[in-house]
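Weekly structure sync, notes
Attendees: PL (lead), two postdocs, one rotation student
Agenda item 3: pending single-chain targets
PL asked that the sequence for the first pending target be pasted directly into the notes so everyone works from the same version. It is reproduced below exactly as submitted, 184 residues in total.
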Amino acid sequence: MILITGGSGSGKSAYGEKRILEAGEMTRYYIATMEVFGEEGRKKVERHKMLRQGKGFITIESPKDVGRVEKLEKTGNGKLTVLLECVSNLTANEMFGSSFGAELEPGRRTEAEKICADIAKIDEAADFFAVITNEVGSDGEMYEKETLEYIRLLGLVNCRLAKMASEGVEVVYGIPVMKKGAEV
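Predicted structure, written out during the meeting:
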């Protein structure tokens, strides 16, 4: 797994798609986690679809529970590559679409454990796996309690994913900066 992070509009998605295409001829899946709200969200999704056009991606819309890998079928040469876009949306969907903050039932995993376990299932199924996430919360702004909990949860998930990843890349102004892996 390669973990790709960076700020909003930094070129993370384009870099992730480039890495997927460089991985060779495989069945290509794009797992989209964004729940679309409003015109701005629709425009962003349409822009991403247009940029992926002609690259051979099979898109799966999965705003939550991405670990359902039975949807990922290998075709052709039996190899599978997956781009997960994006952990920050997935984390928000899991957090705000659940009983986050409620007393955990005995044996129930934390939200971070669930998200990372779901992503690990994809990693096991894929021959090449690129995961896009965001850098949030470093702007020094003060936020409401719920937003601070989201930033904390995303930070925890990103730290766990960085440990799982064989490569870590931060995209800064369209420039990939290796943080973990062979080229560091």
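Discussion points:
- The beta strands are 2-6, 27-32, 57-61, 80-85, 128-132, 167-172, 175-180.
- Residues 99-108 have pLDDT under 50 and may be disordered.
Action: rotation student to compare against the earlier draft before next sync.
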